[in-house]
Amino acid sequence: MPSALITGASSGIGEQFAYALARQGCALVLTARRAERLQAVAAQAQNLGAPAVAIFPADLGQRAAPARLYREVTSAGLTIDVLVNNAGFGTRGRFDQLALEREIEQIDLNVSALVALTHLFAADMIAARRGAIINVASTAGFQPVPYMATYAATKAFVQSFSLALYHELADTGVHVMALCPGATRTEFQQVARNGDTVPSFIYMDASTVVAQALRALKKRRSLCINGAINKMATQAQRTAPRWLVGKIAAMLYRPRPPA
Which of these CATH numbers, 3.40.50.1980, 3.40.50.720, 3.40.50.1110, 3.40.640.10, describes 3-253? Predict the structure, then answer.
C-alpha cells in the first residue's frame, strides 16, 4: 500500500491532501504543531478510506525538527512513497518593521525544513527507485512582493529548488513537482493578515487546489499552477517589465491603515 507524509496537515491545503490521498487508499503520516487538530484530521482520513494514519506532532520551524521527524518515522518502520512539503506561513508589513525572529522562523519553516525533509526522504526513495515529492510553493514566487518580501522570496526558492530536482532526479524513479497555488481559502490569510489584497472571486478552495495537484502529479508535471486566472497572471508577469510588476504588487500588498 502506498504511504504519504504530509507536513502542515492540520488545516488548509495539507488537510485536503490528507483527505484526497485517503480516498485513494494511501496510508498517511501527518505532521503539524497542533496535536488535537492532527487527531481530528486523522480520524476523518480513516473514515474516508485511509488504511492507516500515524501522527507526529512537530514544529518544523525548529532546525532540529526535520531530522528528528525523519528518525521517528523510520524508527516506526514507516516507508514514505509520497512526500508533501506543505508546511509554511507568511508575514505582511514593511520588512524593517517586522520582527526579525519571525522572519527567520519563516525562512526556517518555508525553506530549511523543506530542504531537509526532501534530502532525507529522497535518499530512501532513490534507493527504492520510486517516489514522489510535492513541494508547495506559490504564485507569489514568480515575482517580488513588497510587504511580503520574505514570504515571496521563500516561495521563489521552493519553485527553483523543486524544478532543479525534477531534472536531477529524472532517471532515479523519483518525481518532484512544485505546486503553485494562488489565493486559497485557508488559515494562511489570517496568519499573514493579507485577506484584503485580492478580490474574493480570485480565491480557490483548498480541495480544488489539491485535486489539480494530484492530476498534475499523475501526468508527471514539473510545475502545477492552480487555476486559469493564476496561469494567465504568471504568464503576464514573465513578459511585463520587472519594475511594473513590483509596483503593482506593492499597491496590492501595502498594509491598509486601520479603519
Answer: 3.40.50.720
